[in-house]
Design a protein that fits this description.
heterodimer, A: about 250 residues, alpha/beta, B: about 280 residues, alpha+beta
Amino acid sequence: MIRLQDVAKEYTKTRVALSHVTFQVKRGEFLFLIGPSGSGKTTILKLLYMEEKPSHGDVWVNGVHATTARRKEISQLRRKLGIVFQDFRLLEDRTAEQNVAFALEVTGASKATIPQRVSRALTQVGLASKATHLPRQLSGGEQQRVAIARALVNDPYFLLTDEPTGNLDERATRGVFQLLRDINAAGTSVIMATHDLEIVRKADDARTIELNHGRVVFDSAETPPPETRYTPLIGQPAIGGPNEGNWPAPPKER
Amino acid sequence: MLSVREAWNASRRAPLLSALGVITIAFSLFAFGLFALVAVNIRHALRGIEERVEVRAFVSEGTPAEAIAAAMADIAAFPEVARVDYVSQEGALERARKDMGEFSDVFEEATLPASLDIHLRAGLRDPGTVRAVAERVKSYQFVDDVRYGEEWVEKLYQLRTVAAGTGLGLGLAFAAVSMIIIGATIRVSVLARAREISIMRLVGASDAFIRAPFLIDGFAKGVLGGLLALLLTWLAYRTIDLRFLKLVFFDPRLVALGILCGALIGVAGSATSVWSHLRRI
């Protein structure tokens, strides 16, 4: 389980990334984090995989407390968190299977089980036939699938994805999104930070948290009536992009 | 094993960077090696001079041979004394003539006193010890006078102290500079693999696991750089030894110590670079 309690993150005195953020994510949930650039989506993910510590408040991930966790605990936690980025972060000089195996090798997995686990993960993302391809021989969508396979290979409890479709065309976006839905359906919680409101509209059974200026301005889990299921922006017809200028103004300071 | 393979693969993927690392380490250790060569030879020269430190006790004319022999045995038993030689009047004259070379005829008519030449043990030739031995020898009744070149013994020891202090200071400075250069070199290879390190961190590799290939890399580069530096220093030694002046080279223990220092500097430089990099990510 993930729990954020009154979390604030200040990078500098004048650069406040998050303030008063409180929410929980249960096992098996599919959660969208939406909001304009700079609204704090990536900061929340960084807090969850503990690259950053909160300036105030508490972040708990699978029983690990972000503020007091030691580096060793963070390493152990990350083995059970799959992390996927917009820019894939693959090792360019290694094949798809080597990239996936890397996640097992560096965590000391039994050598005998690695080929089988890598093969299973690549099959899961539909790339078994391209296991020996280098990243540059794969399309953007395929590279993102390799990154997802790498994130899945350790059987994570949570999959944290930061704009996973940001660099992909429409077709690849649909494919990657469907893959994330399938992974979620198999029991892994998925948290997806995205600008792509079209995707969010299509997944109306998923939970959505909208951020603006570092604050939660909407949480579908706390807004039960169906007619208020979406923020005004999500309810609008898609216009083919994040349309950042239309995000609501931040709430006034209390 | 995986760490060794990772270190090897990293070197193979960037051979130029690895070669540059080894060469940088080699040249900074070479500079240190040249300094050490100078220091070793100065020490060697000073030791040669030091071996000439002796206490000379002049024996009264007519002293019975038994008394001299008994005193010699007595003095030879002093803990500071390595050897006692008796130099007769004839022997003293002969030695003086030899020392004076072309002016040897000034001693034609002279009579020089017999003496006991007392050689001290290595490490016990400092002014205080020399003076103490001289005082004890002076107490023998048949000893007329004792000379030990008080002034130059003092100066020799001052020179030795200055040389040791300067050597230590310069040596530490050279070692520090070498470490900084080596640290910077390894930092470049850490930065070249920054992406890999960040991915390792993201998938949950422990700091120890991330650090291990770099430490192995630093160790290997340190040893290779140390060997190359040793070769360069030996070439410099041979050139000077053959063409200019006789020198001594490092003894095997010092050679081993030099290579060990290279390895340690490589490991320390790597550890510092990786540690500071990991702190930031």
